Amino acid sequence: MAKLRYACDQDKSVLMNNFEARGWIQVNPEDDFNFYWANVQNIRNIFSIESGYRLSDDQFINHFPNHMELTRKDLMVKNIKRYRKDLEKEGSPLAEKDENGRFVHLDFIPQTFMLPSDYNLFVEEFRKNPNTTWIMKPCGKARGIGIFLVNKLSQLKKWSRDGKTNVFTPPTAKETYVISKYIDNPLLIGGKKFDLRLYVLVTSFKPLKCYMYKLGFCRFCTVKYNANVNELDNMFVHLTNVSIQKQGEDYNSIHGGKWTVQNLRLFLEGTRGKEIADKLFDEINWLTVHSLKAVSGCISNDRHCFECYGYDIIIDDNLKPWLIEVNASPSLTATTSSDRIMKYKLISDVINIVIPPGELPDVRWSRIPAKENLGSFDILYDEELAQADILTQEIKSRVGQATGTRGARDSKRTTSTWK
Amino acid sequence: MNDDCFMYGNDHQVQVLQAMKTMELYADLMETAQKEVNKSNFKLTDLQTSIELMFNDKGRNGTLKNAIYKYICIHAAKHSEVPIDHLKDPISYVFKAQQSWEKKIMKSLNSMCTELNVPLARQRTEKEQKEFSQMWTALGADGPDFSQIRPVYAPKDFLEVVTSLNNVNYRSANNNGFNLWGIIQIPLKNRTMDELRIQFNEMSINQWQSGMDDEQDIFQEIFHDDRIKLGQKVIASKLAPLACEFTKKGSSISLRGDLWCQMLGIKIDDVDVLYYEKLKSNVLQHELLIDNLLYKDVKLTATNDDHYFVFEDFLYQVLLPFSRDTVVLRNLLENSTATPARSFIRGKVGMEHFEVYYPPSGVIPFHGFAMYVSPLCYLYKEPIKLYYVFRELYMCYFFRLHVLSTDPQGILSLSQLFETLLQTHEAELFYHLKSVNCQPLKIAFKWLMRAFSGFLASDQVLILWDRILAFNSLEILSVLAVAIFTFRKTNLMKVQTYSAAEGVLADLTTLQVLPLIQLSLFCK
User: Read out DSSP for A281-314?
Assistant: First the structure.
C-alpha cells in the first residue's frame, strides 16, 4: 500500500509525533497530500473562490470551509437563536417554553447581544435587571484577549467612545463584540472557578456524526472566586484561559490548573450522588448535539473535511451547564506532561476515526468507525444510525412518538448516541 | 453479632463492658433506662423484660451493636492481664527502636527550631488571630515563607530505620539471618497466599466487583443498579458489620461516603461540631512549628498533584485541627508503640507538672502525610465530616504505617509480607532485582507507607481503601504491591540498575487496582 502523504503548517509536537509514528511521509501543502492539518487561515485560502483549488477523493483536511458559523462567537449565537425560532415555528416539542418565555430544553447559552448592532436591545434588557454583570468579548479574538466585565451602562459608553466606533460605517468582525450575561454564580470547587474544555469531533454535518472525547479537562483559576464588584477587573478571578492564568504568580506548572473531567465526575458523584452527576453530563451532551444541529443547515458539508472542536462550558452552582464558545483550533500546545499525553492521544484517536487504520483517506468511506477505533471517543450522536433506530422502533410500536419532549429526548438516546 | 461477642469469652465481655462505661452511649442508655423505671405504671417484677424491650427498639439496638463491633475490631488482639508497658509491643527491641526513632525525630525538630530561630509553639496576637480567622478557608493563598522548612523525615528515612532492625536474640548458623532475600530480617509471622485467599475470598474472580465489573456496558443495568439498590438498603439498616460485608465487593461511588461513615461509626452530631470548632479556635490561638511542616507538606504533595490540587484549602482545614486533637494522642498512647514527644512550657523546663505532649495530637507529620487526607476530598465536601472520617481512618489504620511495631497490620509486617510473597511467587523476578542491587522493598515502601495515595489515580485509591475498611485489614496493600511487580515483570526483568527499575514503576496512575489484586491472589 502506498504510504500516506501528509502536510502540516504548524510545528506542534503532538501532531508531528503522531504523523511520524504512523510512518507517514511529509509533503508541502502545495504538493499532493492525503491529509492536511492546517490552521484556519490556510483553510480559508484553500476554500476561497480565487484559489480555485479542488480537493480530490483521497484528500482530507481538518476544518470545514465555513466553520465560522459555529466558532465565531456572534455567528454561533445567531445560529442557535435561529435554530430555536425554527423549531418553535415547526411546533416542535423541543422548543417548549416556560412561563417566563425561556426555552425549557434549549436554554443553554447565556443571554447574548451583538454590539454595536443590538445596542438598543441590550440597553432595554439591561434596564430590566440593572444589577447584573455582563461580559464583553471581541468576536474575532481568542485566548481571553480583549475581554472585560461591565456592570454599568456608563462603562459601555466609555468603551464605545474610546473605540471611536463610527455609527455610520458598518463594523468589521474585529470591531464587533458580543455582550453576554455573566455567569456570576459558577460552581466552585475548593473556592475556585473553573470551566470545561471538551473535545468534540465532527466527521459530517449532514447527516450529523459527532463524537465526544472522554479525556476533557477543567481549567481552574488560581485565585479564589469573588463576585464582588470591586474584583471585576481582576481577570485571574474570572477568566480560566490558560494563557491568562499562566501570567499569575500562583500558576502551577506541574498541573497547570488542569483537572480531568473524570475527576470532576468522581467528585460530583461522590459528594452529590450519581443521579445529579449523570444529569449534568447528559445535559452537556445534549447542548453539544443541539449546538451542532443549529449549524448543520448552514455549514457546507464538504466530504473532505472533519473538525475537532474545543467546547468551552461553564457549570453554574445549580449544576446547569452553559455553552460559552466553540473553538475551531483548540490549543495543541502541551502545558504539562499529562497534557501532552492526553493531546497526543486525542490526535491519534481523531486520525483513527477519520481514516480507518491501514487505509488511505477516501471521501466515500462509510463514516461509521469500528468500535475498536473509537479510542477515548464516545459516539455523541449519529443521525444516520439514529434514524435507522427510529425506523426499527416505529415498526415495533408507534405509540412512543407523541409523548412530549422528554419522550422525544429519550427516544433519541439509543445506541446511536452517547447512551 | 451477639455470637461475635461470645466468641471472645467471659474475660473479653467484661473488658467490653468496662470500655462501654466510658462511652457517651452508655450514659444515654442509662438515662433512658432510668426514665423508663421512673414511670408510674412501672412494676419491679417487669424490670428485666421492660429494659430488654427498650434495648430491642430498633435504632438503639443498632447503635449498641455498632459500638461493640467497633470496639472488637480495634481491640481484638488484646489480653487484659498483660501489663500496659508490655502491650506497647511484646518484642522489646522493636519497642526500643521505635523510641530511639522518636528521639531522633524530636532532635531534628528541635534543631530546626534553633536553626530558624522559631519556637515550637507561640501564641498569636489578637490581630494575627483575627487575620488568620478571616483567611481560614483560603489558607493556601498567602502562606508564610516555607523555603526554610524541610520535612522532618520522608519514607526513605523511615525505611532505613525499618531495615536496620535486627533480632539481637537470634543467631543463625550461616550468620545470614533467615533464608530471606529481602531487607526485613526479623522473625514475624505473616500470612501465606492461601490464607490471604481465604481472608479476601469475597474479592475472587467469580464474584462481581463494584469498580470493575460495572464498567462493562452489558453489566451496567443488571449488576450496577442492583448493587446500588442493595447498598441503599444497607445504608438504611445503619449497621456497621452489614456495611463491611457489602463493601467487601466494593461500594459504588455515590454510596461510598455514607458506607464509610457507617463502617467507621461516624455520625456527626452537635457535640462533634462543637469539638471541631474548639480545635479550630486552638489553631487560631497558637501557632505551632508543626503547622509549617503541614503547610510545606501540602505544598510539596497535594498542591502539585493534578488529582488533588483543587482541594488544597480543605487539607489545611483538616490537618491543622488534627494536630491539636488529643483524642488522637490518647489513641496512640493506648493502641500503639508510639510514645509521643513531650516538651515543657517555656520557662518551666524540667518541671513535670508543666510537661506537655507536642504536638497535642502526638503526630509529627512526615513527607506525604497530607496524602492520607487528599483522596477523602472526593467523598465529603464539608470540612467537618472530612475531618472526622480522616481522624477515624488515621486512628484505625494509618498510624500503623509510620510506627514500628510487631502488629500484623503494622508497617514491619506489611513490608515483610510484601517481601515473602514476592519471594515465594515471583522468585525469578526477586532474584534478578536483588542481583542488580535493587531491593524491591526500596521501591514499594513508599507505596505501603502512604497506602498508595498519590501513586494511583484517585478513583483507584478509593477502590483500594474500600477494601481496607471492609476487610478491616491493611494487608491488601502488600498484595497490591506484589501484584504491581508481577504486572510489570517483563520490563523489570530487563533492568540493570536501580534507577531503571524505579523508572519502570514510576507511573502507577494507569493501573486498575482490582484486576491486579485478583491476578496475584487468585490466578496462580
Answer: HHHHHHHHHHHHHHHHTTS---TTB-EEEEEEEE
